[in-house]
Structures are given as structure tokens and as C-alpha cells.
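Quick one:
INPUT:
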């Protein structure tokens, strides 16, 4: 099973740190965030990894290389200067990801979630890892009912940025620059998205405040 790490974001809410350092390479605990994702995927047996690049992408390519030091085989999907957002970025990378389901992981998430190789049931296009709502997303994103993702219901949980997808989810979803959330919502309304709730360590390191919060965690 292959995996994709989303690392093309500009990191506007983490400036000025991201003016000179790619967001995925920020190291609040002494190690770049993206390396936690690579190591966790490799531990779970997923060694073929695609990383998308945009802002300061060459820094990531220089640091990570082809992945030998992690026991991985890493290739890159270069989006140029302007990132294609989550949906557009995954769509562009599909030729590198093959025909089977693949994991998609946000590079700027810190978590102790243990990856696996889930089997998606027939007709299911995506499987989302959900988490209890953090303070910055109190209303949540999607409800989880009987293992299915349901939009516009309560109580809702927060999408963790960790998911398994089939290529079919994106192939007819749009072109160019577009976000992933509407694609997931449309598929969920057709009962094509499953989910699970993870209650362990998870933090979206998307702002300076949350970056500082992660810095204060006990030594890992």
C-alpha cells in the first residue's frame, strides 16, 4: 500500500517561521514534523511514499531525499510555486500512487496514531480518521454514525488529516486548484465514506500558538 504526505502548504498562519522554512520541516520537538509521518508509515509497512511540494519544496527534497535513511522509497509531486490545495494536490499525484487505495497524511499533524492497511468495502471511496474536537474546531467537521461519515449531523468530530482513499474519489472531482473537504462531503452524502474515532495524542500544528503548544509537550 502506498501513501501520500501533503507538504505543499505555504503555512501562512505560522509566519514568520515559514517565511524561510518549509512548514513540514519545522521541528518543535527537535525533529521535522514530516519525519514523524514518514517513520510511522514505514513502521506500518508502507515504504512507497509520495510527497507533494510547492513553497520551499526544495528544502524538503534536500532533507528527505529518496528516503533511504528511513527505509522508504520517496518520490515527489512538484506543484510549482503555487500549491494546488489538498484536492488538487492529490489529483495531480494520482499517477504516482497507482490503482489501489492509499493513505493520505497531513505533514503538519503530530500524532501517535498507528497506521495499518485497512480494506475498504466495495463502494467505499474513503476512510477518515476522526478525533475529538479541539478548541479551535469546536463544531467539528463530520458526524460518525455506525462507522459511516455523515455530513450535517451532530455530534460531529474533527477530521484528523489522516485518511485512506481510492483514486476514484478524485478522478472526477475537479481540476486545478481545489480543496478536499467538498469532495469528501459529496462522497459521504452518497454513503461512500467510512470512519473511525481516534482518541490518542493528536495535534494539528497549523498555527504559531499550536506550534508553541507542541513545544511544551514532555520529551518524546
Amino acid at each position: 500500500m502506498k501513501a501520500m504526505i501533503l507538504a505543499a502548504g505555504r503555512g501562512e498562519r505560522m509566519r514568520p517561521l515559514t517565511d524561510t522554512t518549509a512548514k513540514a520541516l519545522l521541528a518543535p520537538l527537535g525533529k521535522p514534523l514530516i519525519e514523524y509521518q514518514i517513520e510511522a508509515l514505514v513502521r506500518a509497512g508502507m515504504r512507497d511514499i509520495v510527497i507533494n511540494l510547492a513553497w520551499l519544496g526544495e528544502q524538503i527534497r534536500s532533507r528527505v531525499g529518496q528516503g533511504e535513511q528511513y527505509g522508504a522509497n520517496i518520490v515527489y509531486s512538484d506543484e510549482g510555486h503555487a500549491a494546488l490545495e489538498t484536492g488538487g494536490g492529490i489529483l495531480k499525484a494520482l499517477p504516482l500512487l497507482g490503482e489501489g487505495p492509499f493513505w493520505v497524511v497531513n505533514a503538519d499533524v503530530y500524532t501517535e496514531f498507528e497506521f495499518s492497511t485497512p480494506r475498504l468495502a466495495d463502494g467505499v471511496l474513503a476512510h477518515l480518521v476522526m478525533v475529538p474536537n479541539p478548541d479551535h474546531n469546536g463544531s467539528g467537521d463530520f458526524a460518525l454514525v455506525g462507522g459511516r461519515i455523515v455530513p450535517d449531523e451532530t455530534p460531529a468530530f474533527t477530521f484528523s488529516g489522516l485518511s485512506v482513499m481510492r483514486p476514484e474519489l478524485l478522478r472526477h472531482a475537479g481540476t486545478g486548484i481545489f480543496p478536499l473537504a467538498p469532495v469528501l462531503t459529496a462522497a459521504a452524502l452518497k454513503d461512500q465514506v467510512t470512519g473511525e474515532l481516534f482518541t490518542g495524542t493528536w495535534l494539528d500544528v497549523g498555527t504559531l500558538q499550536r506550534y508553541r503548544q507542541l513545544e511544551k509537550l514532555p520529551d518524546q
